[in-house]
Every structure is written in C-alpha cells, then in structure tokens.
Amino acid sequence: MPPPKDVVKIAIQMVGAIPQLIELQQTKPLTSVLKDVCDAWSLPNAERYALQYVDGRQTYITESNRGEIKNGSILRLTTSPDQEAERLYSGIQSNNSDVKTDSLKKLASLSQDVTFAQEFINRNGLKQIFYIVEEGNDTGEMLAHTLKAFMELMEHDFVSWETLSAAFIKKIVSYVNLNAVDASVQQLSLSILENMVPTSRLLFELVKKEVTLDRLLTHLQVTNAQLQLKAMALLIALLLAATDAERRDMMDYLGEKNIRQFIHKNIIHSSEPLGDEMAHYLYVLQSVSLNLCERRMRTSMDPYSQEQRELLQSLRQTAFESESEAPASNFSTERRRSLCAKEFRKLGFTNNSNPAEDLRRAPPGLLALDNMVYFSRHTPNAYSRFVLENSSREDKHECPFARSSIQLTLILCEILHVGEPCSETAQAFYPMFFGQDHFFEELFCICIQLVNKTWKEMRATQEDFDKVLQVVREQITRTLSLKPTSLELFKTRVNALNYSEILKLRQTERLHQEETLAVPVLELRERLKPELLELIRQQRLLHLCEGTLFRKISSRRRQDKLWYCRLSPNHKVLHYGDVEEGVHSPPIESLSEKIPVADMKMLLVGKECPHTKEKSSGKQNKDVLELAFSIVYDVEEYCLNFIAPTRYEFCLWTDGLNVLLGKEMTSERMQTDLDVLLSMELKLRLLDLENISIPDTPPPVPKPPSNLNFCYDFSHAEQ
C-alpha cells in the first residue's frame, strides 16, 4: 500500500551520530518534528536546532518550504538560523583575523538562504558589514568574503540599495578605481555598482561621476575574462539607465576611444570562446548604438528649417554643380526654379517642386536625408555615377535615387530593429557592426548601390519599384544571416547574390513546394510521418538527457546565478541544481534536486507561468515571455520555473517535456525539423523518378483483351 501523500520518508544526519530514517508527517508542526529528532539523539534545547538540506544550496527547512521535501531527501540537523546569525554576527567583530575571515566566509555562504539572511539583517548585521568596508584597509581575501556576503544579503531585497551610505559607496568606487586591488574584489565591486545603477537616478549619477568611462575601458582591456565581463556589465547598466542625451554623449565618447575596434579585435576575435553573458552585452551595446538613429528616424522634415533645406540642396548641387554652376546666375528666378525642379526630378524625388514633402513620412524621416547626404559626401563618385547614369536612361527605366533611399532606409531600420527596446535575453549581434565606424551609414552606402545594380539586372521600370526593393530586402537578409565578420565581406557576398541567384533560390524553393504537393507524394508523406515523429521524440529526450544551463532572471537585473537541469538516462527523473560559472556539463550526481517524471502534471508556457505573473506587467519583456515555461508537479502542484537561454532551447525543452507527459509536440521547431526530415526522406525515395512528372491520380488499369483465353484444356489432350 503506498504511503499517504502527506508523509515523506527522509534521512537526517548529524556529525558524530548514526543517521535517523524517519517518516516526516507534513501536517505535524516543525517544532514537534525537531523535538522528536533531538530526543532520539538525547539533545536538549530543540529550539536551538534546525533542519537543512545536505546537498545543493543547503537551504534551511521552514514551515513555508517544507512542502518541497521529497521522498529520499537527506537532511542535516544543524544550528538554527537565529543561533547561527548570532554566532557569525559576533565572529565578524572578532579581533582575531582568522576567526573574522572564517566567519565572513561562512556568512557569504549562508547568506544565500533567505531565512538566515532575514535573521542576520534583523540583528543589524549589514551595519557591521558597512563598518568593515568603510573602516578597513584590507583588500584581500577578507574583503572579498565581506563583499560577497553583502551581495548575497542584498539579493533578497529586504533592504533598499538607496539606503547605502556615501562612505560605503565611495569605498566600493575606490576598489574599482585603484590598480593595486585584488581582481576578485574588483569583480565584486563592479557587480555591486551594476546593481546600484538601475535602482535610482541619484545612484546612477553618483556612479557615472565617480567611475569614469576611461576607467571602465581600462578594465575591459585586461586579460581576466571575469573582470572584463563585470566591467562590460556596469557599462551596459550605465547606458541603459541614462537619458537619451546622456546616452548619446557616452556613445560619442566611447566612439572617440575606438571601443568598437577594441571589442572587434580583442573580444569577438579573442582566442577564448565568447560566453553567453558577453554575447548578450554586445547585443545590447549594438542595440543601444543603433537606437541613437531613432530620433532622426521619427522626425519628419521641416520645410521651414534652413539647415534641412541646405542639406537637401547639397544633394542637388553635388550631383549637378558642373552642369548648373556657370549659367545659373544668369537665369531669372522662374527659370532657376524650373531648373531646380528638373534636377530634383532627376534625383528621384516624387514631388520635384517641393522635395521636402517626400521626407515628411516618419519613419524613416530625416534619417533617409542623413543617409543620402552621407552617401553624396563620402562616396561622391558612386553618388554622381548613380544619379547621372539614371538621368540618361529612358524615363520609365530610371532608378529613382531619392525614392529608393527613403524606402531602403526604412527596410534597414526594420531589419536592424532600430527603435525597438533591448531584449533581456537576446545574444544575436552582428560581428561586422563592431568592425566599422558609422555602421548604419556605411551599410546604406553598400545597399543603395545594390539597389541600382539589382534594378539594372531586373530591367525594371517605375511600376516594378516595390518588386525591386523586395528583392533587395531578401538579398540583405539572406546575406546578414551568414553573419559576415566585416562590411567588406558583406559587400562581396551581397553583390554575389544577384537577381539571377535570388530567382534560382526562389525557383528551388517553389519546385520543392510543388513537388511535395502532388497527391501521391502527400500520401507518402503521411506514411513517413509517424516514423520521423518518433525520431524527433528520441532526439528531444536525448537533448534533455544531455541537459541545459539556465540563468535566473529577476525583474531588477540580469542574474549571474546559474542552474542546470537534465533528464536521467532512464527518462524517469528530472535532476536539477545550482552550478558555478564555467561549469558546462555537471555530472548528474552533483545535481541535488530531483522531480520524478511520474509526478509531473502539466507544462505551462508564456503568460501562464507563475514566474511571469509575479513580475509587474508594465515592465514585462516580450522576449522573456516567449522563453518562459514551467513544470507543474506533485499533488500540491509545485512549479519548477525555467527561462530558456534561446528560442531553440525553449522549443527542444517544451517538446521533450510534452513527450514525457505523453502529449503532442507543439513547437515551431518540431514542424521545421519534421519538414526537413520529410524533405530528405522524400528526395531519397523519389531519386529514381527524377525528371519524371508524377500524375495526381494513378493511371487506369486497362480492360482485359477479348481473346484472353490462355487456359489449356487438358481433357482434349487425354482423348
């Protein structure tokens, strides 16, 4: 007979004693359970003891979390959190440096537990930590343990970052600004400042003033990868907390210091592989930089602005000055206006009498004008060739430079997500972005020449304008998907992907689609589906067995804490637990927590997940919602919450968990994988039928011939 659901069988250890195997009744008060355990070992004062997990984070057992105890759990009888907090509070005030260091080390470890942290903070423990930092001159191991303990205590959000004293902040800043400080202390100091920056405007201004960009750039140039990462994290935090004007000034200064070239050479092309965290920060830096174009993109042209009108006139003058320079002064006002209108028409403006009207649409707004002016000034030969070449063509075959530039700017803004908020999890950045100053403008210069080239290849007319730009968009997106490392490489590849290549790719995709839509082929697809779906199921379960590294993300900041989850080889238990940075595939034995697959009830995704509901809806990030999923397990319906590192991992894990639950796989990745496998299998099966058209219906079986009389009459032979 199975045990009742409110009873769990556990082991309890104590140093120097024989372990106890007990049946823990979850309805029984924890104080009574502790008294029974202490009585069995003849220990007085049961109130001074507590139970704690042996493995993993060694969390204290409380009335609020006791429901998470599973059958087979191993607990330890230890000093209660209040007693331990009192002991360590005294220990960190000791005059003996060894005792003090050991106490701070233990404090840094225990502060991860919320129960202990509450007890320690209630004893005014943070005040003592502030005193050690503010008054102490040590910069070694003791200080590192102190800062680590402070970070862990603040992680629980019992105390606001805004309550920190000016002296404490000044000391933390000094550890960042001094050279002769231990690297571990500098890393923790940078992390503390990174946490402070988003909490209030006052703290942001203080950190920005005290920790200069030059100092952060110095930390970025060290060989210590972790110190480099923390410096980048603080830089990104400052950029995200800044106002638009401050952000623009900071990016301009970083540009002067050639930060892009440094990142391109020493981080992206470093001998060490790029970690997920650094990839995310590079994505944010790219996004912040491109979003500086948003203001111009959303601003319509003001026809009364002298500066904007001069920019517009400079386009005409650069293209036609040799033609109009000498005789223009001799013309009447009307004649000069007529000449200008003619030249603006040659430039490709729709409204040649008032070209400013073409730039009233926002987006792309003034950004299109900026791009055209940049192209005319930095590549004047290419600009003149584009305009004059199209001026000499027949009216219907000329490629309109201005109209094309406006539409191309809009396309580039959409492809590069200009004006969109940064994702909390994305890691997709373009390496070539960091290898080039004025990236957006230089990319435009390449792509506008591509428009002219594609226009000629398509022999397009004005009616084909949208078709040409559609092909150009496809050329750009296909080339960007190859992640070229430099703009030169992008230029080479995008020009090689000419119109005929695009047609071939489209035709191949269309033929493949038509081929797979024939009725007999569709029937064959249906027959092959079950076998291939089973193959996908096995692959998903294999991926779960290999496991994945997940990050803990809070509403305040991107967390550094990692945890790992993997499925047991027999597909019966899900193992998980916290891991340290740098551990990529921990053995299954090191993962202390477990969930039997038989206890799993359902899978929740997106907005249904409890950890997405906990966050404020106003600040909720769409990307986090798309990567969130939860497993509901046990009769009490506890949840294990995940935020996948990528959409790919999200698809594989949700598919795998659905397989374990006996449900259908529903992710878009499953459909993609199934289509790829079906396509490959069909091609193999149909190899012998190449260049033979497959009829929609089987050919009719012919009627038997009238002389079908092949039966030999043996009776005649016998006579």
UniProtKB/TrEMBL annotation:
<dbReference type="Pfam" id="PF11841">
    <property type="entry name" value="ELMO_ARM"/>
</dbReference>
<dbReference type="GO" id="GO:0007015">
    <property type="term" value="P:actin filament organization"/>
</dbReference>
<dbReference type="GO" id="GO:0048870">
    <property type="term" value="P:cell motility"/>
</dbReference>
<dbReference type="InterPro" id="IPR050868">
    <property type="entry name" value="ELMO_domain-containing"/>
</dbReference>
<dbReference type="GO" id="GO:0006909">
    <property type="term" value="P:phagocytosis"/>
</dbReference>
<feature type="domain" description="ELMO">
    <location>
        <begin position="307"/>
        <end position="480"/>
    </location>
</feature>
<dbReference type="InterPro" id="IPR011993">
    <property type="entry name" value="PH-like_dom_sf"/>
</dbReference>
<keyword id="KW-0581">Phagocytosis</keyword>
<dbReference type="InterPro" id="IPR001849">
    <property type="entry name" value="PH_domain"/>
</dbReference>
<keyword id="KW-0729">SH3-binding</keyword>
<dbReference type="InterPro" id="IPR006816">
    <property type="entry name" value="ELMO_dom"/>
</dbReference>
<dbReference type="GO" id="GO:0017124">
    <property type="term" value="F:SH3 domain binding"/>
</dbReference>
<dbReference type="InterPro" id="IPR024574">
    <property type="entry name" value="ELMO_ARM"/>
</dbReference>
<protein>
    <submittedName>
        <fullName>ELMO3 protein</fullName>
    </submittedName>
</protein>
<dbReference type="InterPro" id="IPR016024">
    <property type="entry name" value="ARM-type_fold"/>
</dbReference>
<comment type="function">
    <text>Involved in cytoskeletal rearrangements required for phagocytosis of apoptotic cells and cell motility. Acts in association with DOCK1 and CRK. Was initially proposed to be required in complex with DOCK1 to activate Rac Rho small GTPases. May enhance the guanine nucleotide exchange factor (GEF) activity of DOCK1.</text>
</comment>
<dbReference type="GO" id="GO:0006915">
    <property type="term" value="P:apoptotic process"/>
</dbReference>
<dbReference type="Pfam" id="PF16457">
    <property type="entry name" value="PH_12"/>
</dbReference>
<dbReference type="InterPro" id="IPR011989">
    <property type="entry name" value="ARM-like"/>
</dbReference>
<keyword id="KW-0053">Apoptosis</keyword>
<dbReference type="Pfam" id="PF04727">
    <property type="entry name" value="ELMO_CED12"/>
</dbReference>
